[in-house]
Amino acid sequence: MPLSDVPLVLKSALEKEFIGTPSVLNEDGTTTPPPMALFIDVQSLRQNFADCKKAFGEGFLHAMAIKANPVSACIKLAVEAGIGIECASIGEVLHSIRCGCPPERIVFDSPVKTRPEIEYAIKNNLHLNIDNMQELEVVAEVY
Considering only Cβ atoms within 10 Å of each terminal Cβ, which end of the chain, N or C, has fewer? Predict the structure, then answer.
């Protein structure tokens, strides 16, 4: 989409109350969140992936933090571009795999990993950041 069209898209989304509307207070006291929209410039995202790979050259695993963008379509774009996914939870790991990310391109970077999570990571060839001596001991026992 050309940059000149962005104001028109946002204006239309606001007019149709897709974005920017207040939460609705229900009779039982709960609230219903407003509808929301997410706009992603796919061409720019692809270009950013390519620029990152070009800047560092071959031999590096570039990874997008899933917490920054857990949208399945964006994860798939990253995977198509040869980018890995950095995951801070086992749920993020499983989501990345469901989106087609090969396990060897996943960096599991949770600050507190359980023994079963470490075993899963090793068994499935994930990259594993070890954050403390206890995790290192588990890796030594499992590996």
Answer: C
Contacts of 126 (CB under 8 A, 6+ apart): 93, 103, 104, 106, 107, 108, 120
Alpha-carbon distance of 86 to 99, in angstroms, equals 13
Rounded Cα distance, 116 and 64, in Å: 24
State pLDDT tens for residues 54-80: 998 888 999 999 998 888 999 999 999
Q: Name the strand (E) or helix (H) holding 21.
A: none
| Burial class of 129 by CB neighbour count within 10 A (0 to 12, 13 to 18, 19+) | middle
Give the list of residues 6+ apart from residue 41 with CB closer than 8 angstroms, or none. 1
Tens of pLDDT, residue by residue over 101-142, are 999 999 999 888 999 999 999 999 999 999 899 999 999 998
For 7-40, b where at least 16 C-beta lie within 10 A, e where not — what string?
Answer: eeeeeebeeeeeeeeeeeeeeeeeeeeeeeeeee
Whether the CB-CB separation of 79 and 101 falls below 8 Å is answered with yes
What secondary structure letter does DSSP report for 101?
Answer: -
pTM: 0.74
